[in-house]
Design goal:
By secondary structure, the protein is mainly beta. The protein contains one helix and eleven strands, in the order E-E-E-E-E-E-E-E-E-H-E-E. The strands form two sheets. Strands 2, 4, 5, 6, 9, 10 and 11 form a seven-stranded mixed beta sheet that branches. A hairpin with a 4-residue loop joins strand 7 and strand 8. The longest helix is centred in the C-terminal third of the chain and has 5 residues. It is globular, with a radius of gyration of 13 Å. The N and C termini lie far apart (34 Å).
Length: 124
């Protein structure tokens, strides 16, 4: 059973925006690093972005720098991924992940908890 729940995916035209949200299924991830990964058809899952428990440290994949922004509101127990200037190549299933080891573990591909994913489709 997925321990994180993603929402906010959908279909958008190139150049458009979407905001993804991630919440834990019960409990809290206030002291976890939280990140986003994505997997396109016939491709391996790849790291997108990660944020430390206090929001100070943020990492991004080169492919999304300047277009995507990760943030969190620990009072609402929610992590967001704001995606602007979406491109066809951003089409994928996006997964939320949480790691006690923080954003560096996530950037290395390691996570303690995963969501089931939300589909993002960008039409050119």
């Amino acid at each position: 059973q997925a321990q994180l729940v993603e929402s906010g995916g959908g279909s958008v035209q190139a150049g458009g925006s979407l905001r993804l949200s991630c919440v834990p299924r019960g409990g809290t991830f206030s002291y976890y690093g939280v990140g986003w990964f994505r997997q396109a058809p016939e491709k391996e899952r790849e790291f997108v972005a990660a944020i430390s428990w206090n929001g100070i440290i943020k990492y991004y994949a080169d492919s999304v720098k300047g277009r995507f922004t990760i943030s969190r509101d620990n009072g609402k127990n929610t992590v967001y991924l704001q995606m602007n200037s979406l491109q066809f190549e951003d089409t994928a299933v996006y997964y939320c992940a949480a790691a006690r080891g923080g954003p560096s573990h996530l950037r290395a591909g390691s996570s303690d908890h995963w969501g089931q994913g939300t589909q993002v489709t960008v039409s050119s």
